[in-house]
Structure formats: C-alpha cells, structure tokens
Amino acid sequence: MDRELELYIHIPFCVKKCNYCDFLSFSSDQKTQEDYVNALLREICYYGPLMKDRVVSTIYIGGGTPSWLAYERMEEILSAIYQNFQIAPDAEVSMECNPGTVTKESLQSYFSAGINRLSIGLQSADNEELRLLGRIHTFEQFVKTYEMARNTGFNNLNVDLISGLPYQNTEKFMDTLHKVIHFQPEHISAYTLIIEKGTPFYDQYKFDAVRQEAGMKTEVLPTEDEAYRIYKMTQLTLKEAGYMQYEISNYAKAGHACRHNIGYWKRTDYLGLGLGASSLIDNVRYTNTTDLFTYINETQNIQMKELEYEDRDKNQKKVLGTGIHADGQLLDRKSQMEEFMFLGLRMNEGISREEFQEAFHTPIEVVYRNVIEELKQEELLEMHAGRIYLTEKGMDLSNYAMAKFLF
Ligand code: SF4
C-alpha cells in the first residue's frame, strides 16, 4: 500500500511585515517573486519522482501571504504538484490568505485549481488592534474577503485569531470572538500572542512580557490571570457555539478539524517545499535553507549531499540530503518517542497506546510508567479506552506536563 505523505509549500512574501511576526516572511518585488516561484517549481519537479510510492493526503500552502502571489503563479504551483505527485482524490488542500490580498478572480482561480480550504488571517475584529499589530487590513476588509470566499463556493473556512494583545482584556477578545462566530466559519484558530525576539513588539513590550510570565502586574499586556481568563472564556464561548476544541489553540465544527495539522501532531511524514520549509521523512527532520539566494541557486541543479549533525551523545553523524537543506538529522528512538508524546498530547484525544506499541514495538508503560503515574496523581493526565490524554487541568499546565516526557 502506498504510504501517506503531507505536503507543505512555503510562500515567504508579505505586503509588509506585521509588528509581532517572526515567521520567515518579507516584502519583495515582482522579479524576486517570479524567481522564487520558478525555484519552487524546480523543487516540486525534483521531489515528485522521489516520492512516487506515496499518496499525498493533505497540501498546505502557508507563508507569508500566499494570496499575495499573482494567482496565475499559484495555479502553476498547484498544477505542478498535481502533475508530479500522486494526490489522494479526497485530499485536503489548504491555503492561507489575508484580507485585502484577494479578489473575486483570484478566489475563483484558487477554487478551480483545487484549493478546498481557505485559512483567513484576521487576528482581531477591532480596527485599533489591527493597526497596533501592523496588519494591512481592516475588519471590514475581512468581511468582504470572507463573503467573497463563501460566494466562490469555499465550504471549509478557517479564521485565525490572536489573543493577549496589548491593552486587550477578556471583554475585548470576546467581542472579536462573537463577531467571528457570527459568520460561522467551519474552523477557528485562537492563538495567544507570544512576544518574539527580533520583532518591533519585542522592543516595545519585552519587559512587560517578562512581568506577565512572572505573574506580576503588567503595563499594557494582559496579566497572566487575564490571559488565562481569555483562554477559558474562549473555550466556553466556542463550545457553546458548536465548535469542538481538538487541540490547544484549534476549534472546529464536526468533521472540520484540520487534517494537515493533525498529521503533524501524529507524526505523519511530510515534505516541506520552499524557503525554510521543514520536512519529516522516515524519521529524518530536514530544514531548507532560509537564504533566498542560496535557495534559488541550489534549485538550479539539485544535488544530493551529506548533511552533518551532532546526536544527543555529541557524536558526529551524517544523513543524506540535498544542497537545498540547511540541516538534517535522523531522530533517534528517544527523540521519536518524545515527539510522539508531546505532539500527540497537544490534541484533546491524546495518544493511542496501540499506536505507541506499533511505532516502537514496546508498551508505553515500559517507557513512561513513572511519568504517567505521577501525572495521573496530579490529575493532569487520564487513561481511557486505550488512549492517554491530558485532563482540563493538564491542558492548562500543558508545558509542565509535556516536559515530563522528555528524556
Ligand atoms: S501577514 Fe502573517 S506572515 Fe506576513 S508579516 Fe503578517 S503575521 Fe507575518
């Protein structure tokens, strides 16, 4: 039987950089975008034949702002994927887009090219918050984008939100949430703001972020208690509105959980194409170069090469990759088990004992008996019907609970 593969395609271009963003994204001219897409097409053509024994179950085009590319180029990318890979007939094909960067024509083109799930980056329904975040759009532009997407025929829409913004309280975020629920998207992702190094927000709010983390009184960021209240109210409000929480930050109506993300958390093999994209293939983690010039150059004539890495015992090892890769590393058995646990426990349904046994040919209790017992006693973890999952309290303390599974 053909093995499953997920595809991730990275489009690193944005109209302008948002104030909180540390993703690999930047503004660019037309020529750079053209060169980039040509390089991406070469990478797609290179990997297709190497993956001919795999069936692609999900494709996720992320960024950056994929909808900022000329839609004709997106058509070319999708057509190259369909020509070079074996795509499952029921594949989930998602693309991220931002309000203000799509038109009726572009949405129609995405739809005809096979995209069947759109993820719209709204972040907030408050125009003042959007301005603070450095977003290029208003809430009204989101409404227009959303309605155009629905009219085009998209019946699987996600809306991305961020809570914990400067000057935000529970009431303000609930206002955003209610406004979004009113539109009834099939999926809502509600992330919490993290103040990342190297962003304008870091320069502005780093001390407040430290105060927040220490549980102290903050100046403009919500306090730790307020952030917790926002999280709990988000859970409750979305539950009442018919959305099932299936992961720490992700909520969906029945049958609309994102299959691509679930694949990540279940450690399905995935191939990341494009600048800085990472992959997991047969337990080797690869990361593509983040240097645009190197990426474009190396795709001219993709060469196999050995990638050196240091394992957890500080031994020098090698794995076979290509000139596009910045690094690659074969995950040892312990690392695979760690990932299995801390990725799987992000999901509300947790992990399956049987799948652990299948993956590692040993019962989970042999490896993690003490940790499981300890977390059960602390009421952070439960076992039921062959599954192990975090309790509500465990989810609230997920960082603490998951860290216990690291060797
Ligand atoms: S649109 Fe998204 S990827 Fe682009 S700068 Fe803003 S947050 Fe970053």
TrEMBL record:
<dbReference type="GO" id="GO:0051539">
    <property type="term" value="F:4 iron, 4 sulfur cluster binding"/>
</dbReference>
<keyword id="KW-0949">S-adenosyl-L-methionine</keyword>
<keyword id="KW-0349">Heme</keyword>
<dbReference type="InterPro" id="IPR034505">
    <property type="entry name" value="Coproporphyrinogen-III_oxidase"/>
</dbReference>
<dbReference type="GO" id="GO:0004109">
    <property type="term" value="F:coproporphyrinogen oxidase activity"/>
</dbReference>
<keyword id="KW-0963">Cytoplasm</keyword>
<dbReference type="InterPro" id="IPR007197">
    <property type="entry name" value="rSAM"/>
</dbReference>
<dbReference type="Pfam" id="PF04055">
    <property type="entry name" value="Radical_SAM"/>
</dbReference>
<keyword id="KW-0004">4Fe-4S</keyword>
<comment type="function">
    <text>Probably acts as a heme chaperone, transferring heme to an unknown acceptor. Binds one molecule of heme per monomer, possibly covalently. Binds 1 [4Fe-4S] cluster. The cluster is coordinated with 3 cysteines and an exchangeable S-adenosyl-L-methionine.</text>
</comment>
<dbReference type="InterPro" id="IPR006638">
    <property type="entry name" value="Elp3/MiaA/NifB-like_rSAM"/>
</dbReference>
<dbReference type="InterPro" id="IPR058240">
    <property type="entry name" value="rSAM_sf"/>
</dbReference>
<keyword id="KW-0479">Metal-binding</keyword>
<keyword id="KW-0411">Iron-sulfur</keyword>
<feature type="domain" description="Radical SAM core">
    <location>
        <begin position="1"/>
        <end position="241"/>
    </location>
</feature>
<dbReference type="GO" id="GO:0005737">
    <property type="term" value="C:cytoplasm"/>
</dbReference>
<dbReference type="InterPro" id="IPR004559">
    <property type="entry name" value="HemW-like"/>
</dbReference>
<dbReference type="GO" id="GO:0046872">
    <property type="term" value="F:metal ion binding"/>
</dbReference>
<dbReference type="InterPro" id="IPR013785">
    <property type="entry name" value="Aldolase_TIM"/>
</dbReference>
<comment type="similarity">
    <text>Belongs to the anaerobic coproporphyrinogen-III oxidase family. HemW subfamily.</text>
</comment>
<dbReference type="Pfam" id="PF06969">
    <property type="entry name" value="HemN_C"/>
</dbReference>
<protein>
    <recommendedName>
        <fullName>Heme chaperone HemW</fullName>
    </recommendedName>
</protein>
<dbReference type="InterPro" id="IPR010723">
    <property type="entry name" value="HemN_C"/>
</dbReference>
<keyword id="KW-0408">Iron</keyword>
<keyword id="KW-0143">Chaperone</keyword>
<dbReference type="GO" id="GO:0006779">
    <property type="term" value="P:porphyrin-containing compound biosynthetic process"/>
</dbReference>
